[in-house]
Amino acid sequence: MVAARLRRVRGHLALVTLLGPLLGVASVLGFGGWLPLLAVPVLIAVVGVGWFRAIRFRPRRWPLRAAVLGAAAGIAAGAPVLPWVVCPVAAVVLGAAGWWVADKARAVVLEPYTPELADSPVEVPWQARGARGLELVVGTDRISLAGGRFKTVRPAVALSGVGSVEQVMVARRATLPVPGVGEVRVTVTPGPAVRITVPPGEWIVPTDHGREIARLVARRKALAGVD
Question: Quick one: which of 112, 174, 196, 220 has the fewest CB in 10 Å?
């Protein structure tokens, strides 16, 4: 099931990795650009392939990487024409297109969530309710908080350090500290949430999927041989 999803997005990832560099090569050759400039789109392609191989099981990271590659390829494609005019436009267009294609690929792999994802090597993110950009990320060997206020500090805990994971109900809006991350806090809105016991305290993340997260973490702890 999950393997089939990953196969379905191979074309998407190949598109965002190779289309921009191919346009760069065509631009250099078609507009009589300086031939050594061909090294730039080739380098972008090599970097792109390496990037996506490294994060092939981390779909939440695909859109940003694709946007960066697209923007770089747009600059390379526009340089042989009218660099001061074409480069910014091409960078924006290819960057946005790369983001869109990769985001579609991300959705194919992660949505809808099914229990089979727990047995796969895919990193599974869960969007926090009411906390824009904040995600609880469950990997194969650790869980972490990402996005939102955690752009520079990303608290992560190995599965071996994770204690109980359970769904709870939050009665009122509250801003709670994140243990071990200084002054960083999470705003919890009324409704269901997941409470995760971690050293040196607990994370409480607002989400309607606490039971699914608990089962996902339990299954991955079992697969990792963690009690």
Answer: 112
